[in-house]
Amino acid sequence: MQKQQEQCQIFAVLIFTFIFLLAAVSTTEAGKKEKIEKKMKKSDCGEWQWSVCVPTSGDCGLGTREGTRSGIDCKQTMKTQRCKIPCNWKKQFGAECKYQFQAWGECDLNTALKTRTGNLKRALHNADCQKTVTISKPCGKLIKPKPQEPKKKKKEGKKQEKPLE
After folding, report:
1. DSSP E strand boundaries for 24-153
2. 28-71 tens-digit pLDDT
3. d(C-alpha 96, C-alpha 51), whole Å
4. Distance of alpha carbon 75 from alpha carbon 42, whole angstroms
5. Helix, strand, or coil here: 64?
């Protein structure tokens, strides 16, 4: 009789454990279903389209750009993002256009400039960038060869001696 009671208790524990596991699995599945539904809602939103970076003051440095996207169920369709325009010669190509430049070429003696070419590496935020760009800069000081004068020979044999004091 006692053995039957022990078996019933073990059976009851197993059933209780089984019911608990079923409840846990169904809760997890419900959570997964909610996540999938949220992903489906997010997929209605279009990709962000960004404007060019507009500096806060001057023509370079810190600034902002505006982003927009479309979609009926999107919570956010506009936002502003901080950005930075480098204050160097590259700004002539746009801050969103990144180029891989070759080495500087030889100096052109007629123009006193040297040039190099850059190939587009990547365009950030859907920027409209040129595929290839060429830049020039002054060569710096040009060293022109000076006509050499014949060296003066030192007078030999006539050394003047200092008097001993």
Report:
1. 49-50, 54-55, 61-68, 78-85, 97-101, 113-123, 132-138
2. 666 666 666 655 554 678 888 888 788 888 767 888 888 888 88
3. 10
4. 9
5. strand
